[in-house]
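Journal club prep — side note

Before the paper discussion, L.F. wants everyone to see what a predicted structure for a comparable chain looks like in token form. Sequence:
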Amino acid sequence: MATCTHSGSDYEGAFPCDGCAPVDARDGVLICERCYRRLRRHLEDAADIVGHLRSIADPTKAAAFDRIRVQSSSIEIPAPVAADLIDASNDITTTLNMWANHVAGEDRPGAGLPAGAMADAAHDVVQLAVDVILDELDALANDADQIGALCDGVTIVHRDAPEVWTVADASVRWPLEDAPRWAQAACPVCDLMAVRVQPGRNGRPSRYRCTTDDCDWEANSRDDGGLWASVFADPAPAEVRPHDPRWMTLADAARLVQRTTGTVRGWVSQELLAPQLGRYWQDDVLAVAAMKRGEVA
């Protein structure tokens, strides 16, 4: 069970553990499916979040707003930048680099972003660390101490300004500008039409999340053998066929056989013609007219 520290012999004997955790754990790891997928989602978003923060402001011009400012002799004074932007991007980078070093077996602290790092460079630095962590995520999730620490550093959302920013903190404060859509299929857990589809970025899989208050289901397009990619695929556009001029309006059909529109309507009432969406097939109109003239169609 997720969060449970008991195993093996604890479930045997006269007084076995009957389970204390609220949900089943994901296969092969020590956390539940929901927590695993939320952690993975934030890790996948980390590089885009950091690049987004760096694109908002020039990191070399950060300033605290509550600090006393002195008059400058510069003609053009750059606008102050919220230091939180720089702190958040640097904290996230440091945390993820530390975990990447740990996973790679390197006993050294994580490095932050270099001063003045631009958005694309910051994105690449974080993406390298994230790729290392994601490659070993299942192994980390099978160690209770490590997965708890990783979740604390990535998925926790603090109520106030945090001492150390997490990816989740930054995504709440400065959300990415995405274009999600509503899925055309119901949530597999609550059976409500409330799933939002988030298109994948930079080669990442698309994600699917239920938005109802009592349902935390989410998955990506690679989960369960790609099942959800087919379930929540974009609806196929309606086939548009070129107009066939042999489908005629009532007036055109009457004109073709030199009859009135009332005569053609009478053929429909006699079930000699079967229009489709108000159109008449040219060959059918000619055949009925020939029959009425006593000719062989």
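L.F.'s comment for the group: DSSP finds ten helices and eight strands in the chain. Keep this in mind when we get to the figures.
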